[in-house]
């Protein structure tokens, strides 16, 4: 598919972030990333899919390259539209995190999308729930150690 | 207390809605359908009424067991976990991962790049844009399927990946993508369209199918 991420694990190579995350959840189940209750699991997946299918693909590298000077406007349009819907959904589902008080796959999708929103200068003031959850998640070690500013290939000027 | 029948908010030609229609048909789940016309009245998905139901203002939305779900794969996973027979995901985790990988590739990597909302922005470049992204996505998909396919996308059992494939091939045909370079996709699509669940859920047979497109 000529895209990242790809994970080589247990003798296979997987792509598509949510397929990878589901595989990790099913083979290394602790700590869990999906709640036990099917309705809450559905909410986690709904939020994840909204970000992963409904927002990110519309502002990824491949598309923005086609947009030329309209790049910023395009990215802002689709992130804003997606965040308007997401803010409403989260007002129903959120506790400390996206769904209740346990970190789930939805939270793994949220933080990187907020990072993108900031990168494309989207005003986050209309999204207090998104902002609050993002802040709480960025305090967790896993979200810090995986941050773009701390990777082997992070450019020097962007290093934490 | 008798449960209410599930209600599916759907548009006949929406590939995302079709995936869920197939799942409901395969699992033998009776439901009522409320058509949402994405073109009429400026798009009925933008009405205050529908927005209250689904803030994402998109179809499909499924009202079931007292909740409303959107996002076709979240809905299909919920059906799988609450009505497990017949299964739509294999038992083996590696095969499940392949099913999800193929499904996600279509649902995140192809369909969003040629959906109504984007194509409306493309104006006269609409056909070219749709063809570009479907072609690019199908090139990758054909290679993956050559490793995973049996009679269907992953082995010989119908899975969530097949529910995603058929509607995307329908879109490819709609945008006049040449399918000759994708023999595996074509073969699997043909085998699936022989199954009753894929026929009964087809865009040509829905309550809101326009007369001229009816089967």
Automatic annotation (TrEMBL), chain B:
Q: Looking at the record's lineage, which domain of life comes first?
A: Eukaryota
User: Where is it localised?
Assistant: Cytoplasm
Give me the reactions it catalyses: 4-maleylacetoacetate = 4-fumarylacetoacetate; RX + glutathione = an S-substituted glutathione + a halide anion + H(+)
Q: Pfam families attached here?
A: GST_C_3 (PF14497), GST_N_3 (PF13417)
| Gene3D superfamilies cross-referenced by the UniProt entry | 1.20.1050.10, Glutaredoxin
Instruction: List, for all copies, the residue spans of the domain called GST C-terminal.
Output: 92-211
> Which metal ions or organic cofactors does this protein require, according to UniProt?
glutathione
Provide this UniProt record's keywords sorted from A to Z: Cytoplasm, Isomerase, Phenylalanine catabolism, Transferase, Tyrosine catabolism
Sequence ranges assigned to domain GST N-terminal in this UniProt record? 4-87
Tell me the GO BP annotations in alphabetical order: glutathione metabolic process; L-phenylalanine catabolic process; L-tyrosine catabolic process
> Could you give one GO CC term from the UniProt record?
mitochondrion
State the EC number(s): 2.5.1.18, 5.2.1.2
Known NCBIfam families for this protein? maiA
Q: Which family does it belong to?
A: Belongs to the GST superfamily. Zeta family.
Under the heading PANTHER family, the entry gives: MALEYLACETOACETATE ISOMERASE
**Name this protein carries in UniProt:** Maleylacetoacetate isomerase
Q: Point out the gene that encodes the protein.
A: GSTZ1
């Amino acid at each position: 598919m000529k895209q990242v991420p790809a994970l080589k694990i247990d003798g296979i190579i997987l792509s598509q972030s949510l397929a990878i995350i589901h595989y990790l959840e099913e083979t290394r189940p602790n700590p869990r990333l999906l709640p036990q209750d099917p309705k809450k699991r559905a909410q986690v997946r709904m939020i994840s899919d909204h970000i992963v299918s409904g927002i990110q693909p519309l502002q990824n590298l491949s598309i923005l390259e086609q947009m030329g000077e309209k790049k910023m406007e395009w990215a802002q349009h689709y992130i804003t539209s997606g965040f308007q819907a997401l803010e409403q959904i989260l007002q129903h589902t959120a506790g400390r995190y996206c769904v209740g008080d346990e970190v789930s796959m939805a939270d793994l999708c949220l933080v990187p999308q907020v990072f993108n929103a900031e990168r494309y200068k989207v005003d986050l003031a209309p999204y207090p729930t998104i902002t609050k959850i993002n802040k709480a998640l960025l305090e967790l070690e896993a979200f810090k150690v995986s941050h773009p500013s701390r990777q082997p290939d992070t450019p020097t000027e962007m290093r934490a | 207390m008798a449960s209410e029948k599930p209600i599916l908010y759907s548009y006949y030609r929406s590939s995302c809605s079709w995936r869920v229609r197939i799942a409901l048909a395969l699992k033998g789940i009776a439901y009522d359908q409320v058509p949402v016309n994405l073109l009429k009245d400026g798009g009925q998905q933008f009405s205050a009424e529908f927005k209250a139901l689904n803030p994402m203002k998109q179809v499909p939305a499924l009202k079931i067991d007292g909740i409303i779900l959107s996002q076709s794969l979240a809905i299909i996973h919920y059906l799988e976990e609450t009505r497990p027979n017949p299964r739509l995901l294999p038992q083996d985790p590696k095969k499940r991962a392949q099913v999800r990988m193929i499904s996600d590739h279509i649902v995140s990597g192809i369909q969003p790049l040629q959906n109504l909302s984007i194509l409306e922005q493309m104006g006269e470049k609409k056909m070219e844009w749709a063809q570009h992204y479907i072609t690019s996505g199908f090139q990758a998909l054909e290679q993956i399927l050559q490793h995973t396919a049996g009679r269907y996308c992953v082995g010989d059992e119908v899975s969530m990946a097949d529910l995603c494939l058929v509607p995307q091939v329908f879109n490819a045909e709609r945008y006049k993508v040449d399918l000759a370079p994708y023999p595996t996709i074509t073969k699997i699509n043909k085998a699936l369209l022989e199954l009753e669940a894929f026929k009964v859920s087809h865009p040509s047979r829905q309550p809101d199918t326009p007369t001229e497109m009816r089967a």
